[in-house]
Model the fold of this input.
Amino acid sequence: GDSVTQMEGPVTLSEEAFLTINCTYTATGYPSLFWYVQYPGEGLQLLLKATKADDKGSNKGFEATYRKETTSFHLEKGSVQVSDSAVYFCALGGRDDKIIFGKGTRLHILP
Amino acid sequence: AAGVIQSPRHLIKEKRETATLKCYPIPRHDTVYWYQQGPGQDPQFLISFYEKMQSDKGSIPDRFSAQQFSDYHSELNMSSLELGDSALYFCASSSERGLAGGRRYEQYFGPGTRLTVT
Done:
């Protein structure tokens, strides 16, 4: 079945460092891909999305490109801030409209 | 812009009690999804409704039931609560059904209801 695999955390970086969180997927057909962010004690927020191959989703300095050839959707940011500390979920729009999430990656940014 | 509303935001119940969680989708959204997120876990799909009919079912226990009403709001009913039911329950809504062979939809998530079973 459809699935998402993302790098395990926690990931700890210093402020202004470069961030990459790897995500790969397994799916039939052409799923939509998403990154969701969950700040401490809060709900899920859609960070960015891509609906077809080679699409680049971007928001708040974060970017991810839908790579069909490598079945990947890695999240990147050039310069992280303390306020980016959160849990990040890679996800795909799977069969029958449900969203399938990865296990989440906790990100800690040190000042 | 209006978002998905969930109520209550927090709920504390004892074992074997019942709980009802409510979800009000974004206006004109016809599809509602329920997800359960255990402590430190990723959200897991429970059930979804499209135009008041159940459209898909995931890992939802038989003790749970849900429905979507004529105004498109949805309720998740949970009976004989167990300690393991303690979780954050998300509702999401969308306005586009996935078509066979293509998925071009976006689900908007509510803030969640945190259920604690003691």
Summary: Chain B touches chain A at residues 31, 33, 35, 41-45, 48, 55-56, 58, 88, 90, 92, 94, 97-98, 101-112 (CB under 8 Å).
